[in-house]
Design goal:
Elements: H1 2-5, H2 8-17, H3 62-135, H4 141-155, H5 166-172, H6 182-220, H7 223-233, H8 245-248, H9 251-261, H10 272-313
Helix pairs in contact: 3-4, 3-5, 3-10, 4-9, 6-10
C-alpha cells in the first residue's frame, strides 16, 4: 500500500476495482457493460490474394513465326485480290453500259445524217435551178413567178447536224479509263474529230445562207409577200427530223399559189444585185456539197464504230 500512496490514481482505481495484481490488470466483474473491457483476441480479417499471371512464355521457334507471318500475308493478299476482282467486274459492267449508250447515240446520229444529207441535196439542186433561172435575163412574168417559188422553197432555211454527245461527254469525264479495247478508243476519238469538224462548219453554213438572203435576196424579192406566202404553207409545226412542208411541195404547186394570189414583181432590175445573188448561191451550194461530204464520212465512221463495238462486246 506504501507504493499506492505515492500514486493517487492507482489508489483510486484500487478502491473501485480492488488491488492491482502483479500479473497485470484484471477484468472487471462489474455487471455494468459500460465498465467491462473485452480483451478476447479477435481473428485477423481474411485478405483476398490476387495471383499475377505467368508472364514467362515458352520460347517460340522460327517455324511458328513463319506460319503466323504466312497466315497474315495470305489474308491481306486474298483481301487485295478480292477487292481488285470486285472492281474489275464493276468496271466491265460500267464499260458495257457506256457502249450501249454509244451505240444508241451513233444510231441516232446516222438517222439524222441521212435526213440532213437529203435536205441539203434538195437545197443544192434548188439553188442551182434558181441561179440558172436568174442568169437567163430578161425574165418573163412566168419566170419571175418561178423565181419567187424557187427562192421561197430552197433558201428560207438551212439544215445542219446536231450530234448526240451524252455518252461521249460521260466518257470524256474520266470514263475512257474504263474502256479496255484500245481500237474502240481510237475509233471513238476519230468519230469525235469528224463531229467537231462538222460542228465548226455550222457557223460558215449559216453565214453563207444569210449572205444569199441579205446580199441579194432582200433586194430582189418582196419579203412581205414571201412571208405571207410562207405562212399559207406552214399550217403546222414540224420537229427537227421532219421534212419542212415547203420542200415537200412541188415547185409547180407553189407557182400556182403565187399566181392565184396576186401578180408579183421583182424589186430590182438587172445589175449588181442579180450578180451578187447568183454568186452567193454558187458559194452556198458549194459549201453544201462540202458539208454533205463530211457528213458522209462521219456516217461511215459511225457505221464502222457500231460494228466494232458490237463484235467486241457482243451486246444484245
Amino acid at each position: 500500500m506504501a507504493e499506492n500512496e505515492n500514486f493517487p490514481e492507482a489508489q483510486q482505481y484500487a478502491e473501485n476495482n480492488g488491488p492491482i495484481s502483479d500479473s497485470g490488470p484484471s477484468v472487471a466483474t462489474n455487471d455494468d457493460p459500460a465498465q467491462s473491457i473485452d480483451l478476447t483476441p479477435k481473428p485477423e480479417p481474411i485478405m483476398e490474394v490476387h495471383h499475377h499471371p505467368d508472364l514467362h512464355h515458352r520460347k517460340k521457334y522460327l517455324k511458328e513465326y513463319f506460319l503466323e507471318f504466312l497466315m497474315i500475308f495470305l489474308a491481306v493478299t486474298l483481301g487485295f485480290f478480292a477487292e481488285n476482282l470486285r472492281e474489275y467486274f464493276t468496271d466491265r459492267t460500267k464499260e458495257k453500259e457506256y457502249m450501249h449508250g454509244m451505240i444508241n447515240d451513233l444510231k441516232a446520229d446516222t438517222s439524222f445524217f441521212n435526213h440532213v444529207i437529203f435536205l441539203n441535196d434538195m437545197q443544192r439542186k434548188g439553188c442551182d435551178s434558181l441561179a440558172d433561172l436568174l442568169a437567163n435575163k430578161p425574165l418573163s412574168d412566168e419566170n419571175v413567178t418561178t423565181a419567187y417559188a424557187l427562192y421561197l422553197k430552197y433558201t428560207r432555211d438551212y439544215y445542219n447536224i446536231a450530234f448526240q454527245t451524252g455518252t461521249y461527254s460521260q466518257l470524256a469525264n474520266n470514263g475512257f479509263r474504263l474502256i479496255s479495247n484500245t481500237e474502240v478508243i481510237r475509233e471513238i476519238a476519230n468519230y469525235h474529230g469528224w463531229a467537231t469538224l462538222i460542228n465548226s462548219m455550222e457557223a460558215d453554213l449559216r453565214h453563207w445562207h444569210s449572205a444569199v438572203i441579205d446580199n441579194g435576196g432582200k433586194k430582189i424579192f418582196d419579203n412581205r409577200f414571201l412571208r405571207k406566202l410562207q405562212d399559207s404553207f406552214y399550217t403546222s409545226s414540224y420537229d427537227a427530223v421532219s421534212i419542212p412542208p415547203l420542200l415537200t411541195y412541188p415547185t409547180e404547186k407553189i407557182v400556182f399559189s403565187i399566181t392565184a394570189n396576186e401578180h408579183v414583181k421583182l424589186l430590182a432590175n438587172y445589175g449588181n444585185n442579180f450578180s451578187d445573188l447568183i454568186n452567193d448561191l454558187g458559194v452556198y451550194r458549194s459549201y453544201l456539197i462540202l458539208y454533205n461530204t463530211n457528213i458522209e464520212i462521219s456516217k461511215e465512221s459511225a457505221k464502222k464504230l457500231i460494228y466494232l463495238i458490237d463484235t467486241t462486246y457482243q451486246l444484245e
